Amino acid sequence: MSDLFWTVSDLHFGHRLVAELRGFTDTDEHDRVVLDHLREVPDGSVLLCLGDISVRKDAYALDQLGVLKAEKDLTMWLVPGNHHRVHPMFGWDSVAEWTPRYREVFDVIALDFQVRVRHWQVLMTHIPRASGKDAVQDPRQTPKLARWAGREGFDCTVHGHTHSSVPVTRKHVVKSL
């Protein structure tokens, strides 16, 4: 992976509720604006998506991202989110069914990535872990999701999932749109 990469999370293509919460009248307008912003990523770049390209509209979202990938000659990496049918939390059958389709768009799919930024060890993930005295509790963090969020000991965590501008702790960076 290049030392320089672009990061995004929680695109939610085709998701009516998220489109409305973001101030759009319909999903077509929402999706067009999100894609237009993604087109600002330089040609030939690495784009790391930290989860939730859609909610139950995987094929549609993958089609949109596939066009973008070809248009921009992107290398695309994915950390599956809690809405991806390729995430292990959906079980073997779902992962087996959806992995080939996701691999048509994403060059690498992994539950997390660790990157080094100068002297910091940075965790790139979808679901953050809220712990310690500085933690801000995530109301969306159910016990089922918490099982997937138990990564500790990093200097910084870059994540999506929360749809909030408030970091989970001072060592977190939220990339949700």
From TrEMBL:
It holds the Pfam family Metallophos_2. Residues 7-165 form the Calcineurin-like phosphoesterase domain. Gene3D superfamilies: 3.60.21.10. InterPro entries: Calcineurin-like_PHP_lpxH (IPR024654), Metallo-depent_PP-like (IPR029052). Belongs to the metallophosphoesterase superfamily. YfcE family. This is Calcineurin-like phosphoesterase domain-containing protein.
